[in-house]
Amino acid sequence: MADRAEYARKGIARGRSLVVLQYADGIVFVGENPSRALHKFSEIYDRIGFAAAGKYNEYENLRIGGVRYADLRGYTYDRDDVTARGLANVYAQTLGTIFSSAGEKPYEVELVVAEVGATAAGDQIYRLPHDGSIVDEHGSVAVGGNAEQISTFLDQRHRDGMTLAEALKLAVQALSSQANGADKAIPAERLEVAVLDRTRAQQRKFKRIRGRQLARLLEADVPAAAQADAVSNDEAPEDDAE
């Protein structure tokens, strides 16, 4: 079992890290991802988002399974019955079964399932390592190859009530930090950013941030009015939820 755990951890470590942060109006997902088609972050249901680090084909299978679970449960019972905690339990069972099975290799993935609440107190963030355990996180979480160092960076600097621009800049700084002290620059075109925004009028709270929106938020000094304008729902339709 120790060898299987080490195998999974090494596979995850080869992938790029990502971070998930709470901010005043919701939860933001930030990661370095040069691909425009293979996403690390996705919408699962109305208020639930999914993030993953590791092997794409493995976490994509898990994402699709999560969407099917959420759709079936929401259709059979009620949309409010689909929760991040329930989804995390399903993922934990799947990952735990695969990890303990002698007939197949463990999945080289680490997941984050997040749900935005009506208030910040209702936000939920769950981290699921390769072995199927569930870790209830608050404020910020990092997964992937450099997760321990990034988590330490975030723990020292993240605070409740941050604006989206502040949280985004902090996430980019954390992802850019290096163990040797020489930070690397991550251009906006290599960033994948998405939010669960509780202020959206739509039932679905997931939204991707890219293009001009992302560039404005990454500017050195973004006033509150500009930040609000950057995430308005009147932007180009291709930046909206999937």
How would you characterize this protein structure?
The chain has a single domain (1-219), classed as Glutamine Phosphoribosylpyrophosphate, subunit 1, domain 1 (4-Layer Sandwich). The protein has helices spanning 2-13, 56-76, 84-100, 147-157, 164-176, 211-217, 224-230, and strands at residues 18-23, 26-32, 41-45, 48-54, 109-115, 124-128, 135-137, 140-143, 191-197, 206-209. A hairpin with a 2-residue loop joins strand 3 (41-45) and strand 4 (48-54). The longest helix is centred in the N-terminal third of the chain and has 21 residues, at 56-76. The chain has 242 residues and is α+β, with helices and mostly antiparallel strands. It is globular.
Features:
242 residues; single chain; Proteasome subunit alpha; threonine-type endopeptidase activity; globular; 23% strand; Proteasome_sua/b; cytoplasm
